[in-house]
Amino acid sequence: MEYVYAALILNESGEEINEDNLTAVLDAAGVDVEESRVKALVAALEDVDIEEAVAEAAAVPAGGAAAGGASAGADEGGDDEGDEEEVSDVPDTADDDDDDEEEEASGEGLGNLFG
């Protein structure tokens, strides 16, 4: 996580996010720097607009987009039975396992960077 924080510090201070600057920030923080992780992070952030990514992350509720949609539906309804049926249509856990595997596969590269 400290590698990401170092990149955020560089971004906030207006400095270029490159291997030398990241290494300098991490060294100053007393982190035992792994060159391969620094290179991987710089490559991963190459085409990322950090300001936009931070703004998007701040806009998502703590439970994520799916939880936000579920709570919005619950807030609208009254006490009629239609709302209860909507809640009972929750997919079984087998579908959730497939979703978890897809999420793990999609974030596999960056997840390995920050162990």
Characterise the protein shown here.
With 115 residues, the chain is an all-alpha fold. It is built from eight helices and no strands. The model is unreliable at 81-88 (pLDDT under 50).
In N-to-C order, the SSE pattern is HHHHHHHH
- State mean pLDDT (0 to 100 scale): 74
Please report the distance between the alpha carbons of the first and last residues: 8 Å
State Rg. 20 Å
Give the DSSP E fraction (strand runs of 2 or more residues). Answer: under 5%
Q: DSSP helix count?
A: 8
Derived from helix and strand composition plus strand pairing, the structural class reads mainly alpha
Helix content: over 70%
Identify low-pLDDT runs.
Answer: 81-88
Inertia-based shape: globular
Number of strands: 0
Oligomer: single chain
Largest sheet: number of strands, sense, barrel closure = none
